[in-house]
Amino acid sequence: MVRWVPMESNPDVWNKFLKEMGVVSGWEFTDVYGLVPELLMMVPQPVAAVILLYPISENTEKLGVEKLAGNEEVSDKVFFMKQTVGNACGTVGILHSLLNNSDVISVGDTLNKFKTDCSSLDPMERARLLESSEVIATKHAAAASSGQTAAPSADEKVNLHFVAFVSVDGSLYELDGRKERAVNWGPCQGDELLTEAAQACQRYMACDPDEMRFTVVALSKVD
Fold this sequence. Notes:
Strand order of the largest sheet: 1-6-2-3-4-5
Structural class: alpha+beta
Radius of gyration: 16 Å
Oligomer: single chain
Number of helices: 8
Order of helices and strands: HEHEHHHHHEEEHE
Distance between the termini: 40 Å
Shape: globular
Largest sheet: 6 strands, antiparallel
């Protein structure tokens, strides 16, 4: 398996990746400091995507299986890809966030071409295309090395995982490259995304209430 250096859950690192990829300024990742209404109100609006970092456990895996089996309806407007590159879940989460919002976010030539090249491919073939992309791999490595903490080696096993939540065609979708398809969490309009995604994140957090390694980041319009 091809393995990349894990990307730190740090909006500054992710925003550097956006800039490196040619994403037009105006949209940035920002920390979500809490999931209660008062703290959600602090997040810049509108929100195009929410990314959750969580520690994989038996309980979170059970929730994932439950939600995958609960609603098999997936809009053909959803962009979804599998993950075959080790430690690339942060980048896959960012790609899911951007490429499901490329109608409102100018994602740049590299990602526009990647999405076009993916248009006739299935989720696994899209993963292989990412695996072979030297441009995206290079940008990922540059961003991963710019974090506040020393980046672990590419061979280090990491038990933390990123998933993205987006609103597409009136539904909230969880996009996780480890799963066989996008997961439909139920009705969600674009202006409800932050609230609905926060509830989904709380479901994951409730799986392991004593666990402290949960992080939530939003992709927001900032100007």
